[in-house]
Write a structure and sequence with these properties.
Radius of gyration: 22 Å
Shape: globular
CATH architecture of the largest domain: 3-Layer(aba) Sandwich
Helix content: 55-70%
Oligomer: single chain
Structural class: alpha/beta
Amino acid sequence: MNASELQDLIRKKIDDFPTKTRRVAEYILTNSTAVAFRSISEISETLSVSKAQLVRVARMLGFNGYSDLKHVLKQTLMEQVNPSFIAESAQRSNMPESLYRLEQANIEETFKKLPSDAISKFCEAAKNASTIYCMGWGISALVAEWFYTRFAELGLKAVLARRGSMSLPEQTRAIEDADMLVVCELPSYVIEVTEAVEKIYKKGAFVVTLTDSLAAPICKTTHLALYASDTSPTFGSSLLGPMFLVHVLTSALALNLGEEGKIALAEQKEGLNDERVYYPAYGLRY
């Protein structure tokens, strides 16, 4: 059973469901990633229904039990954009084209996963924050650094926290409830990052998480969860989806800042025209 077949199955049966089971079926239809990768206890708590109710809905959909439904959901999600499948099935001569299609899919999937109100929430939180902390470990640190660079270019007070001589909890110890944390966490997930985010969340700071899946531990302590597709047959994770998301969010923030944003970008452009540092450049669009 592929993704479209499973969706068609749920849509065909959903009209005959009682109100409570219909709500569960609708959640499964629109939150397949959550159902596939989160425990039955977490889903039942989210929906305020019993585990038995979830099992019942799975059986009404034709599955032997809830675990069978989860298994099918995982399989269908993996088949949508599966880098290992592409790598195995593509002829070597077609590999560049396959990679191009995969990265295009990463960007498209990232855009689809962006909630309609997420951009405005991000902009308001960034504008109101006293200090914005950007956190990442390993490959995720590259995404965090680009966030930090963009905030700095817009004249916002920002701090970059990544693994070095000090641990992440040490670097973010001064964070307060008036601050904002933007944390990127691509697989493999890091215990130190999760622990640092939990402490920051408890302090009352506004936490924005950017990751690839609801299965990421940091998703349990966040005010705004953002998801990027990062599938790749090489190098673990692709950064095109996450970087696309950074560009969209910070570009929207630049416009949202109004005159303040215009002044900051004008100053950035002026700095890039400093011929004591850079060769003469023409047509800068800052």
